[in-house]
Amino acid sequence: MDFKTFVFILMTSVLVNNYVLTQFLGICPFLGVSKKLNQATGMGVAVIFVMVLATAATWPIQNLILVPLKLDYLQTILFILVIASLVQLVEMILKKFLPSLHASLGVYLPLITTNCAVLAVCKNSLTNESVASSAAPFVTALVYAFACGLGFLLAMVLFAGVRSVIEHSKPPRCFEGVPITLIAASIVALAFSGFGGIAENLFK
After folding, report:
1. 7 occurs within a structural domain
2. Residue 199 counted as domain residue
3. What is the total count of domains within the chain?
4. What is the Cβ-side half-sphere exposure of residue 120, based on CA atoms within 13 angstroms?
5. Which of 47, 49, 96, 171 is most buried, by CB atoms within 10 Å?
6. Is 161 a member of any domain?
7. Residues 83, 122: contact at Cβ < 8 Å?
8. What is the mean pLDDT of each run of 10 residues along the chain (204 residues)?
9. CB 162 within 8 A of CB 184
């Protein structure tokens, strides 16, 4: 994989096709764990870890086992099982080495298992055009998963900053709580829509 492909995947995954802000996947942890910066950062790093490891496990399962045996219809079930196992591993690591972060993430950590963004990355790494056309598709798939995780982390950190500002503001009473949070999230998502097409035009 050359440097141009690496930058293209990084830009498209983090900015142009951000899974949270442009594809609206993984909204549950995005809204639930973005109240504080340390929680948002911890969740983002945990999701990156799970995305990369899940892609490293599911890519060979798909290409070396399911496709040759014509068992493609088992893809979603097997991928979810792999993701669930990796989330349990992350939870045990955090509980042992970072108990305060484990406690602050609470129920949202096991919910990574059902985070549709993680499953989407695993499935899309198999069909992504940049990955498929690469000379080293497995390595490119890992880079793609890492870039998508960075996009998730960026969205979490940015929105944590936005919510900290909201906490010190006084919106109209009818907008307090969930309404102002959803409005702020939609404005951040709208801002990211401005990145559409930037990568394609940059590498023409």
Report:
1. no
2. no
3. 1
4. 17
5. 47
6. yes
7. yes
8. 81 89 87 83 88 93 92 91 88 86 77 84 89 86 94 93 86 84 89 75 62
9. yes
